[in-house]
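hi support,

uploading two proteins for the ticket. first:
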Amino acid sequence: MAEITSWPWGWAWLSLFGIVLLRAGATYGIGRAVAAGVLHQRPPGPGVRRAMDRVEQWGPPVVTASFLTVGAQTVVNAAAGLVTMTFPRYLLGLVPGAAIWATIWSTVGAGIFVAATRAGSDRDEAIVLAIVTMVLVVAVGVVAQRTRRDTVES
Protein backbone atom coordinates (compact mmCIF):
# COMPACT_ATOMS: atom_id res chain seq x y z
CA MET A 1 0.00 0.00 0.00
CA ALA A 2 2.84 2.40 0.82
CA GLU A 3 4.23 1.86 -2.66
CA ILE A 4 0.90 2.65 -4.35
CA THR A 5 0.34 5.78 -2.27
CA SER A 6 3.70 7.12 -3.41
CA TRP A 7 2.49 7.13 -7.04
CA PRO A 8 0.67 10.07 -8.66
CA TRP A 9 -2.95 10.03 -7.47
CA GLY A 10 -4.46 9.05 -10.83
CA TRP A 11 -2.21 6.01 -11.19
CA ALA A 12 -2.82 4.99 -7.58
CA TRP A 13 -6.60 5.30 -8.05
CA LEU A 14 -6.54 3.35 -11.31
CA SER A 15 -4.42 0.59 -9.76
CA LEU A 16 -6.69 0.28 -6.71
CA PHE A 17 -9.78 0.33 -8.95
CA GLY A 18 -8.34 -2.52 -11.04
CA ILE A 19 -7.33 -4.50 -7.96
CA VAL A 20 -10.80 -4.30 -6.41
CA LEU A 21 -12.52 -5.12 -9.70
CA LEU A 22 -10.45 -8.28 -10.00
CA ARG A 23 -10.75 -9.26 -6.33
CA ALA A 24 -14.50 -8.66 -6.03
CA GLY A 25 -15.17 -10.15 -9.46
CA ALA A 26 -13.27 -13.30 -8.50
CA THR A 27 -15.27 -13.55 -5.27
CA TYR A 28 -18.50 -13.24 -7.30
CA GLY A 29 -17.20 -15.93 -9.68
CA ILE A 30 -16.46 -18.26 -6.77
CA GLY A 31 -20.00 -17.68 -5.51
CA ARG A 32 -21.39 -18.56 -8.94
CA ALA A 33 -19.28 -21.72 -9.05
CA VAL A 34 -20.46 -22.76 -5.60
CA ALA A 35 -24.08 -22.06 -6.57
CA ALA A 36 -23.65 -24.31 -9.58
CA GLY A 37 -22.58 -27.28 -7.51
CA VAL A 38 -21.99 -27.35 -3.79
CA LEU A 39 -24.91 -25.12 -2.77
CA HIS A 40 -27.35 -27.80 -3.81
CA GLN A 41 -25.72 -30.28 -1.41
CA ARG A 42 -25.23 -28.10 1.69
CA PRO A 43 -27.13 -24.91 2.57
CA PRO A 44 -25.18 -21.72 3.41
CA GLY A 45 -24.71 -20.47 6.97
CA PRO A 46 -26.93 -17.76 8.50
CA GLY A 47 -24.57 -14.84 7.72
CA VAL A 48 -24.23 -15.78 4.08
CA ARG A 49 -27.98 -16.49 3.89
CA ARG A 50 -28.74 -12.95 5.18
CA ALA A 51 -26.37 -11.45 2.60
CA MET A 52 -27.99 -13.57 -0.11
CA ASP A 53 -31.45 -12.35 0.94
CA ARG A 54 -30.32 -8.69 0.84
CA VAL A 55 -28.69 -9.09 -2.56
CA GLU A 56 -31.77 -10.82 -3.91
CA GLN A 57 -34.05 -8.11 -2.50
CA TRP A 58 -32.05 -4.98 -3.33
CA GLY A 59 -29.64 -6.08 -6.09
CA PRO A 60 -26.82 -3.85 -7.33
CA PRO A 61 -27.18 -1.12 -4.65
CA VAL A 62 -26.27 -3.68 -1.97
CA VAL A 63 -23.11 -4.57 -3.90
CA THR A 64 -22.19 -0.89 -4.18
CA ALA A 65 -22.91 -0.21 -0.50
CA SER A 66 -20.75 -3.15 0.59
CA PHE A 67 -17.67 -1.21 -0.48
CA LEU A 68 -18.42 1.36 2.24
CA THR A 69 -18.17 -1.27 4.97
CA VAL A 70 -15.34 -3.15 6.56
CA GLY A 71 -15.68 -6.89 6.18
CA ALA A 72 -18.94 -7.09 4.23
CA GLN A 73 -17.47 -6.80 0.75
CA THR A 74 -16.43 -10.43 0.45
CA VAL A 75 -19.69 -11.79 1.84
CA VAL A 76 -21.88 -9.58 -0.36
CA ASN A 77 -19.88 -10.27 -3.55
CA ALA A 78 -19.98 -14.00 -2.86
CA ALA A 79 -23.71 -13.74 -2.09
CA ALA A 80 -24.29 -12.03 -5.44
CA GLY A 81 -22.73 -15.06 -7.08
CA LEU A 82 -24.62 -17.50 -4.87
CA VAL A 83 -27.99 -15.99 -5.81
CA THR A 84 -26.82 -16.16 -9.45
CA MET A 85 -27.21 -12.45 -10.06
CA THR A 86 -26.56 -11.92 -13.77
CA PHE A 87 -23.12 -10.54 -14.55
CA PRO A 88 -24.39 -7.33 -16.24
CA ARG A 89 -26.60 -6.62 -13.22
CA TYR A 90 -23.69 -7.38 -10.86
CA LEU A 91 -21.49 -4.93 -12.80
CA LEU A 92 -24.06 -2.17 -12.14
CA GLY A 93 -23.17 -2.49 -8.45
CA LEU A 94 -19.51 -3.46 -8.78
CA VAL A 95 -18.22 -0.59 -10.92
CA PRO A 96 -19.49 2.30 -8.76
CA GLY A 97 -18.56 0.37 -5.60
CA ALA A 98 -15.02 -0.19 -6.88
CA ALA A 99 -14.76 3.50 -7.81
CA ILE A 100 -15.87 4.52 -4.31
CA TRP A 101 -13.44 2.06 -2.70
CA ALA A 102 -10.53 3.22 -4.88
CA THR A 103 -11.32 6.87 -4.09
CA ILE A 104 -11.45 6.23 -0.35
CA TRP A 105 -8.22 4.22 -0.31
CA SER A 106 -6.31 6.54 -2.64
CA THR A 107 -7.15 9.54 -0.43
CA VAL A 108 -8.35 9.26 3.18
CA GLY A 109 -7.85 5.50 3.56
CA ALA A 110 -4.21 5.70 2.53
CA GLY A 111 -3.66 8.50 5.04
CA ILE A 112 -5.16 6.40 7.82
CA PHE A 113 -3.07 3.42 6.75
CA VAL A 114 0.14 5.44 6.75
CA ALA A 115 -0.73 7.03 10.10
CA ALA A 116 -1.47 3.62 11.58
CA THR A 117 1.83 2.17 10.41
CA ARG A 118 3.73 5.17 11.74
CA ALA A 119 1.79 5.12 14.99
CA GLY A 120 2.75 1.48 15.42
CA SER A 121 6.11 2.67 16.66
CA ASP A 122 4.46 4.61 19.50
CA ARG A 123 2.03 2.51 21.52
CA ASP A 124 -0.05 5.45 22.82
CA GLU A 125 -0.65 6.88 19.35
CA ALA A 126 -1.61 3.44 18.04
CA ILE A 127 -4.18 2.98 20.81
CA VAL A 128 -5.73 6.41 20.18
CA LEU A 129 -5.84 5.78 16.43
CA ALA A 130 -7.47 2.36 16.96
CA ILE A 131 -10.11 3.83 19.28
CA VAL A 132 -10.92 6.70 16.89
CA THR A 133 -11.16 4.28 13.96
CA MET A 134 -13.46 1.92 15.90
CA VAL A 135 -15.72 4.80 16.94
CA LEU A 136 -15.98 5.98 13.32
CA VAL A 137 -16.75 2.47 12.05
CA VAL A 138 -19.43 1.94 14.72
CA ALA A 139 -20.96 5.37 14.02
CA VAL A 140 -21.16 4.67 10.29
CA GLY A 141 -22.66 1.25 11.00
CA VAL A 142 -25.32 2.68 13.33
CA VAL A 143 -26.29 5.38 10.84
CA ALA A 144 -26.46 2.85 8.01
CA GLN A 145 -28.59 0.48 10.11
CA ARG A 146 -31.02 3.25 11.07
CA THR A 147 -31.24 4.41 7.47
CA ARG A 148 -32.02 0.86 6.31
CA ARG A 149 -34.61 0.38 9.05
CA ASP A 150 -36.28 3.72 8.21
CA THR A 151 -36.30 2.78 4.51
CA VAL A 152 -37.85 -0.62 5.20
CA GLU A 153 -40.50 0.87 7.52
CA SER A 154 -41.49 3.51 4.95
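and the second one:
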Amino acid sequence: MTDFGTYLATQLLTGLQSTILLFVGCALVGNALAIPVALARLSPSRWLRYPAIGFVLAFRGTPLLVQLYLVYFGVGQILSGIPSIRYSPLWPLFRSAYSYAFFALSLNTAAYCSEIWRGALQGVPSGQSEAGRSLGLSKRQILRSILLPQAFRLALPAIGGQNILLLKGTALTATITLFELMGAANLVRAQTFRVYEPLLAAAFAYFMLAIVITSGFKFVERRLPSYS
Protein backbone atom coordinates (compact mmCIF):
# COMPACT_ATOMS: atom_id res chain seq x y z
CA MET A 1 0.00 0.00 0.00
CA THR A 2 1.30 3.46 -0.93
CA ASP A 3 1.85 6.24 1.60
CA PHE A 4 -1.34 7.92 0.38
CA GLY A 5 -3.30 4.68 0.71
CA THR A 6 -2.03 4.14 4.25
CA TYR A 7 -2.85 7.71 5.23
CA LEU A 8 -6.31 7.48 3.67
CA ALA A 9 -7.10 4.17 5.38
CA THR A 10 -5.89 5.47 8.77
CA GLN A 11 -8.02 8.62 8.61
CA LEU A 12 -11.11 6.83 7.34
CA LEU A 13 -10.89 4.14 10.01
CA THR A 14 -10.72 6.83 12.67
CA GLY A 15 -13.72 8.59 11.16
CA LEU A 16 -15.56 5.30 10.76
CA GLN A 17 -15.38 4.65 14.50
CA SER A 18 -17.06 8.00 15.20
CA THR A 19 -19.72 7.33 12.56
CA ILE A 20 -20.59 3.93 14.01
CA LEU A 21 -20.63 5.27 17.58
CA LEU A 22 -22.85 8.20 16.59
CA PHE A 23 -25.20 6.04 14.54
CA VAL A 24 -25.66 3.36 17.21
CA GLY A 25 -26.26 5.89 19.97
CA CYS A 26 -28.73 7.98 17.97
CA ALA A 27 -30.54 4.89 16.67
CA LEU A 28 -31.03 3.54 20.20
CA VAL A 29 -32.16 6.83 21.73
CA GLY A 30 -34.17 8.03 18.73
CA ASN A 31 -36.08 4.77 18.29
CA ALA A 32 -36.72 4.54 22.05
CA LEU A 33 -38.13 8.09 22.14
CA ALA A 34 -40.30 7.42 19.08
CA ILE A 35 -42.72 5.13 20.94
CA PRO A 36 -43.78 7.59 23.68
CA VAL A 37 -44.06 10.35 21.06
CA ALA A 38 -46.31 8.11 18.95
CA LEU A 39 -48.43 7.25 21.98
CA ALA A 40 -48.73 10.95 22.79
CA ARG A 41 -49.86 11.61 19.20
CA LEU A 42 -52.63 9.04 19.69
CA SER A 43 -53.59 10.22 23.17
CA PRO A 44 -57.09 11.66 23.66
CA SER A 45 -55.52 14.31 25.91
CA ARG A 46 -54.70 17.47 23.97
CA TRP A 47 -52.01 18.32 26.54
CA LEU A 48 -50.08 15.32 25.25
CA ARG A 49 -51.25 15.28 21.64
CA TYR A 50 -50.60 18.90 20.66
CA PRO A 51 -46.98 19.10 21.94
CA ALA A 52 -46.24 15.80 20.20
CA ILE A 53 -47.73 17.11 16.96
CA GLY A 54 -45.65 20.27 17.25
CA PHE A 55 -42.48 18.27 17.91
CA VAL A 56 -43.06 16.03 14.90
CA LEU A 57 -43.93 18.91 12.58
CA ALA A 58 -40.88 20.92 13.68
CA PHE A 59 -38.38 18.15 13.02
CA ARG A 60 -40.04 16.68 9.92
CA GLY A 61 -40.71 20.08 8.38
CA THR A 62 -37.19 21.51 8.55
CA PRO A 63 -33.91 20.25 7.02
CA LEU A 64 -31.62 18.19 9.21
CA LEU A 65 -28.73 20.51 8.37
CA VAL A 66 -30.66 23.50 9.74
CA GLN A 67 -31.42 21.54 12.91
CA LEU A 68 -27.74 20.72 13.36
CA TYR A 69 -26.77 24.36 12.93
CA LEU A 70 -29.46 25.59 15.32
CA VAL A 71 -28.40 23.11 17.98
CA TYR A 72 -24.65 23.53 17.52
CA PHE A 73 -24.44 27.29 17.05
CA GLY A 74 -27.67 28.40 18.73
CA VAL A 75 -27.91 26.18 21.80
CA GLY A 76 -24.13 26.16 22.16
CA GLN A 77 -24.02 29.96 22.22
CA ILE A 78 -26.84 30.15 24.76
CA LEU A 79 -25.18 27.63 27.07
CA SER A 80 -21.82 29.39 26.82
CA GLY A 81 -23.47 32.53 28.22
CA ILE A 82 -24.66 30.78 31.38
CA PRO A 83 -21.86 31.03 34.01
CA SER A 84 -23.11 28.06 36.05
CA ILE A 85 -22.70 25.85 32.97
CA ARG A 86 -19.60 27.49 31.48
CA TYR A 87 -17.58 26.98 34.67
CA SER A 88 -19.00 23.59 35.62
CA PRO A 89 -17.11 20.30 35.25
CA LEU A 90 -19.60 19.36 32.49
CA TRP A 91 -18.59 22.28 30.27
CA PRO A 92 -16.30 20.13 28.06
CA LEU A 93 -19.32 17.98 27.29
CA PHE A 94 -21.30 21.02 26.13
CA ARG A 95 -18.39 22.12 23.94
CA SER A 96 -18.26 18.77 22.15
CA ALA A 97 -19.58 18.68 18.59
CA TYR A 98 -20.48 15.04 19.18
CA SER A 99 -22.93 16.00 21.96
CA TYR A 100 -24.82 18.44 19.73
CA ALA A 101 -24.83 16.04 16.78
CA PHE A 102 -26.12 13.27 19.02
CA PHE A 103 -28.88 15.51 20.38
CA ALA A 104 -30.08 16.74 16.97
CA LEU A 105 -29.93 13.37 15.21
CA SER A 106 -31.68 11.55 18.06
CA LEU A 107 -34.59 13.99 18.09
CA ASN A 108 -34.82 13.95 14.29
CA THR A 109 -34.95 10.16 14.29
CA ALA A 110 -37.55 10.15 17.08
CA ALA A 111 -39.80 12.48 15.07
CA TYR A 112 -39.69 10.38 11.91
CA CYS A 113 -39.92 6.99 13.62
CA SER A 114 -42.79 8.16 15.80
CA GLU A 115 -44.92 8.58 12.68
CA ILE A 116 -43.99 5.07 11.61
CA TRP A 117 -45.04 3.74 15.02
CA ARG A 118 -48.26 5.76 14.94
CA GLY A 119 -49.22 4.30 11.59
CA ALA A 120 -48.32 0.79 12.76
CA LEU A 121 -50.35 1.11 15.95
CA GLN A 122 -53.33 2.35 13.98
CA GLY A 123 -52.82 -0.53 11.55
CA VAL A 124 -53.45 -3.16 14.23
CA PRO A 125 -57.09 -4.30 13.88
CA SER A 126 -59.36 -2.76 16.52
CA GLY A 127 -60.73 -6.22 17.29
CA GLN A 128 -57.42 -7.05 18.96
CA SER A 129 -57.97 -4.38 21.60
CA GLU A 130 -61.59 -5.41 22.03
CA ALA A 131 -60.52 -9.00 22.59
CA GLY A 132 -58.04 -7.83 25.23
CA ARG A 133 -60.71 -5.83 27.03
CA SER A 134 -63.06 -8.81 26.97
CA LEU A 135 -60.36 -10.80 28.76
CA GLY A 136 -60.18 -8.17 31.47
CA LEU A 137 -56.80 -6.73 30.47
CA SER A 138 -55.97 -3.15 31.39
CA LYS A 139 -55.02 -0.56 28.76
CA ARG A 140 -51.36 -0.92 29.70
CA GLN A 141 -51.51 -4.70 29.39
CA ILE A 142 -53.26 -4.46 26.02
CA LEU A 143 -50.61 -2.03 24.80
CA ARG A 144 -47.68 -4.10 26.06
CA SER A 145 -48.93 -7.58 25.20
CA ILE A 146 -51.10 -7.06 22.13
CA LEU A 147 -50.60 -3.75 20.33
CA LEU A 148 -46.85 -3.14 20.54
CA PRO A 149 -45.75 -6.63 19.39
CA GLN A 150 -48.02 -6.49 16.35
CA ALA A 151 -47.17 -2.86 15.62
CA PHE A 152 -43.46 -3.71 15.78
CA ARG A 153 -43.95 -6.34 13.09
CA LEU A 154 -45.71 -3.79 10.88
CA ALA A 155 -43.25 -0.97 11.55
CA LEU A 156 -39.97 -2.85 11.25
CA PRO A 157 -39.37 -2.46 7.46
CA ALA A 158 -40.02 1.29 7.57
CA ILE A 159 -37.93 1.68 10.72
CA GLY A 160 -35.08 -0.09 8.94
CA GLY A 161 -35.32 2.37 6.07
CA GLN A 162 -35.38 5.31 8.44
CA ASN A 163 -32.25 4.07 10.19
CA ILE A 164 -30.48 3.93 6.83
CA LEU A 165 -31.40 7.61 6.41
CA LEU A 166 -29.99 8.23 9.89
CA LEU A 167 -26.71 6.64 8.84
CA LYS A 168 -26.48 8.90 5.80
CA GLY A 169 -27.52 11.87 7.92
CA THR A 170 -24.43 11.44 10.08
CA ALA A 171 -22.40 12.71 7.10
CA LEU A 172 -23.88 16.18 7.69
CA THR A 173 -22.23 16.36 11.10
CA ALA A 174 -18.94 17.04 9.35
CA THR A 175 -20.27 20.58 8.82
CA ILE A 176 -20.19 21.19 12.59
CA THR A 177 -16.57 19.99 12.88
CA LEU A 178 -17.30 16.42 13.94
CA PHE A 179 -14.53 14.14 12.70
CA GLU A 180 -16.57 11.24 11.36
CA LEU A 181 -16.33 9.38 8.06
CA MET A 182 -17.20 12.32 5.82
CA GLY A 183 -15.07 14.65 7.91
CA ALA A 184 -12.11 12.30 7.49
CA ALA A 185 -12.65 12.17 3.72
CA ASN A 186 -12.80 15.97 3.56
CA LEU A 187 -9.59 16.25 5.58
CA VAL A 188 -7.72 13.91 3.26
CA ARG A 189 -9.11 15.72 0.22
CA ALA A 190 -8.05 19.12 1.56
CA GLN A 191 -4.56 18.00 2.55
CA THR A 192 -3.70 15.93 -0.54
CA PHE A 193 -5.81 17.69 -3.21
CA ARG A 194 -7.01 14.26 -4.35
CA VAL A 195 -10.76 14.33 -4.68
CA TYR A 196 -12.01 11.01 -5.99
CA GLU A 197 -10.14 8.52 -3.83
CA PRO A 198 -11.26 9.75 -0.36
CA LEU A 199 -14.84 10.44 -1.45
CA LEU A 200 -15.23 7.10 -3.22
CA ALA A 201 -13.71 5.30 -0.24
CA ALA A 202 -16.13 7.08 2.13
CA ALA A 203 -19.07 6.25 -0.17
CA PHE A 204 -18.04 2.60 -0.19
CA ALA A 205 -17.83 2.58 3.61
CA TYR A 206 -21.33 4.08 3.91
CA PHE A 207 -22.60 1.54 1.38
CA MET A 208 -21.18 -1.39 3.34
CA LEU A 209 -22.60 -0.06 6.60
CA ALA A 210 -26.01 0.28 4.96
CA ILE A 211 -25.78 -3.33 3.76
CA VAL A 212 -24.99 -4.50 7.29
CA ILE A 213 -27.91 -2.53 8.79
CA THR A 214 -30.33 -3.76 6.12
CA SER A 215 -29.24 -7.35 6.66
CA GLY A 216 -29.70 -6.98 10.40
CA PHE A 217 -33.26 -5.71 10.06
CA LYS A 218 -34.10 -8.46 7.56
CA PHE A 219 -32.66 -11.04 9.96
CA VAL A 220 -34.91 -9.77 12.76
CA GLU A 221 -37.94 -9.54 10.46
CA ARG A 222 -37.60 -13.15 9.34
CA ARG A 223 -37.64 -14.35 12.94
CA LEU A 224 -40.64 -12.39 14.09
CA PRO A 225 -43.89 -14.32 14.50
CA SER A 226 -46.63 -13.67 11.97
CA TYR A 227 -49.90 -12.32 13.34
CA SER A 228 -51.92 -12.79 10.17
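thanks. also noticed: The first helix runs from residue 3 to 41.
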